[in-house]
Design a protein that fits this description.
There is one protein chain. The protein is of the alpha+beta class. It is about 75% helix and about 5% strand. The chain has a five-stranded mixed sheet with strand order 1-2-3-5-4. The longest helix has about 110 residues. The protein is rod-shaped. The two termini are about 60 Å apart.
Amino acid sequence: MSLIKKDTASLIHSLSMLSIAEFSLGAYHESKKSAIIALKLTDESKTDEWTSKVIVGLYNSLGKAHRELNDYEKAIESYDNVLRLCQNLGDSIAAYNNKAVVYKDEGNFNLALSELSTAYRLSFRNPKATQNARVLDNLGYVQFKLNNSEGIKNIFKALDIRASENDLEGIFSSYNSLIEFYNEKEDKDSVQIYAYKALDLSKKINSPTFRKQALLNLLKLEENPWFVEYIEIENELTERKLEQDVKYSHAKYDIEKERRKTLQIEEEKKIQYLIFIGIGLLLLISAMFLFFLLKIKHKREKSKEVIRETYQTERRLSKKVHDELANDMSDTLNYVDNHKEIPIPVKTHLVNKLDELYDRTRDISAEIDGFDNKDFASSLKFLITQHNREGVKVITNVTSGINWDTVSDHKKINVYRSLQELLVNMKKHSKATKVTVIFKSEGKKHFINYTDNGIGTEIENVHLRGLQNAETRIKNIGGSITFNSSKGNGFKATFIF
């Protein structure tokens, strides 16, 4: 992976240099393409100095190419990207200046003035005098285009700075600005002075491009003797361009071949990486799904096991109460009843007490005794209707409200015990004369509505009357239970599961 990163960085650098070379040769379309390809290989999210510098340089190259191709909108967009990403004062000043030059080319001098004003303010903190002079020269040019008298002053200020820095190319640019200024003022003498100065300076710079510009300035003065020299330098530039084009073609072919090779390797590695990540995510999701599935299954099994153990314990206690305690109570009752030495008044009192204890023992045994899961509706009906005694009327639709065959055994157990809690509570505390227990189903949800017309209770006291067990049981099967009661207004409870 590090080798690929190294190759990619090398390719980006080569494409960046190629874009600059193409621009200098006038191959603006090619320069633009090379910069775009290089930008696609970069990662703007990286914040290291090298990456930021390269990306800013590429957007600058792109902006220059767009400007030469008269695509001013794209040029402005490129320089805006420079301003978004650049990390130093010099790059910011250059970007504002370059945006202004584009607006100047469009003839939008007001926008150009706005950008240059920003660059000029920043230049007070910039130690690079030549860069500041460039801003000042452009600012002066735009100002005189807007008929601002400060324009010519700023052009001369820029010229003074460039002269003090011995910036020959900058001085040449200032001469061109002065030539344009005096041309508009129709001051032929001043134009001629600076045109000749520009020609002399171009010879010192020893650049055909600068000499060509200087000669064009003189040709505009309609002095034909310079025409021959202009043609000669034009031919020289053409020959040099052809030589550079050949070198450029070979360089471009080699870089393009390396670019495709690197992109292919990167694409293969990217695919392998995505496959690896995909497999890893799939395994992780599968493992998490299996873990939660097993956890839920274990929880259900544990819940069922607890219910089974509770059920077996209740059956064992019921049998023990019935077989041992109740029978012992019966034997004691017979003994007292048949023992002649006990006085009749005492015997009568003991027999009544023992008889009452025997009945209570049998009731406890019945309460915790088991029920038939297979014929659950009948078991529930028996549980409910056994409370239908003298002075208490019980109404229920237990055999028709819910299809109990679709309800699991552990839910049946909890429903049975919860209803048992309510009915025992009613028997002990409510003094009710009418009780209704209504069952119904809506889709997958089941409802049990219990109502009695007893003395009721404050809702805060519900848990004190032993009904917290019913609430816990219903919650254990994923359901809910609500109570509604007040003193003198009966008691209501609703199960939903």
